[in-house]
Amino acid sequence: MRLVAGMVLAALALVAAPANALAAGPVPPTCTQIVRITGLAFTPPTVAPGGASAANLSLQNCTPGPEVVTATWTGRFVGADGGIPVGCPVLDPLLQKATLGPYGDFHSAVTYTVPGSCAATQLQVTVRIQQDTRILDQRTAALRITQP
User: Fold this and answer.
1) Rounded average pLDDT over 132-139
2) What is the pTM of this model?
3) In DSSP terms, which residues pair with 124 in a beta bridge?
4) CATH number for 98
5) CA-to-CA distance for 102 and 20, rounded, in angstroms?
6) Where are the extended beta strands (E) located within the chain?
């Protein structure tokens, strides 16, 4: 009887707990870093010159405390010969601060426009997650560019 009463009380405590207390539960065993990239992808994944696509980033805090990180976005247009294709700009890095709550998630998007004169076949975007000078994670996504 005591076991059943204890289970009922535990269940009631879970139902009555505030939502943020439930969000700070145990982390899946696959989350072993401080902060990790859980996704980086373009939407749409393919554009023609003159089109635009959003690079969508998702982060996860793997710790029980808040974490502040910097996401450094770098991009590079790529052509068949590996150099910068005709009509394509050199892209400056973009730095973005992110504060993640305990075991929390962070989502961000950066939109890239392919100039109409750009002869590239791909835009490669890399996001590096840093805390001070320590690199926590890095991932690259590629946007396909269809030439007429």
Assistant:
1) 96
2) 0.78
3) 76, 142
4) 2.60.40.10
5) 10
6) 35-43, 46-47, 52-61, 67-78, 94-100, 105-113, 122-131, 134-145
